[in-house]
Design a protein that fits this description.
With 139 residues, this protein is mainly beta. Helices cover 0% and strands 63% of the residues. The mean pLDDT is 89. The protein has strands at residues 4-7, 29-38, 41-47, 52-65, 71-78, 84-93, 97-111, 116-121, 126-138. The strands form two sheets. The protein has a five-stranded antiparallel beta sheet, with no helix packed on it. It has a four-stranded antiparallel beta sheet with strand order 3-8-5-6, with no helix packed on it. It has one domain (29-138): Sandwich (Jelly Rolls).
Length: 139
């Protein structure tokens, strides 16, 4: 899957000038991104477009492990130089099976233009799926 967008249509809540990350601005565009990585590696879920700022309102990570091992899955954000900025979710697992973790962020986590939201797996027996919902605003 790749990132999808649509125009936000807000009713009943009026954004306040100078406050960001609580609710979208009137000109915001909704964004949804989801992707997975099977085995060791990293997969970009979404790259923030030029002249925009991404606000991540909620995130989910799912891990599927086919054999017992010490393994970790990350759903993270890195800057345009591929330098890690923060983890949305980081889950460690050592027993074969499934694990899901999801949460809402208030205020929303921010990512600047050119930054990536990505999933990462550190084990061959692990599949990691990451998904987020949020919105884009002009930077």
């Amino acid at each position: 899957m790749s990132g999808e967008t649509d125009q936000v249509r807000w009713r009943g809540v009026r954004p306040v000038e100078g406050i960001s990350g609580i609710w979208p601005a009137l000109n915001a565009t909704r964004v949804h991104g989801a992707h997975y990585i099977a085995g060791v590696g990293t997969q970009v879920v979404y790259t923030v477009p030029a002249n925009k700022k991404l606000y991540i309102a909620n995130a989910l990570i799912t891990l599927k492990m086919t054999a017992a091992a010490d393994a970790g899955g990350k759903f993270s954000v890195r800057d345009d130089g591929d330098v890690h900025k923060y983890h949305l979710l980081y889950v460690l697992q050592n027993t074969a099976g499934y694990q899901n973790v999801a949460f809402n962020l208030v205020p929303a986590a921010e990512a600047e233009a050119g930054w990536d939201v990505y999933v990462n797996s550190n084990a061959a027996v692990l599949t990691v799926f990451g998904m987020f919902h949020g919105w884009l605003e002009d930077a």
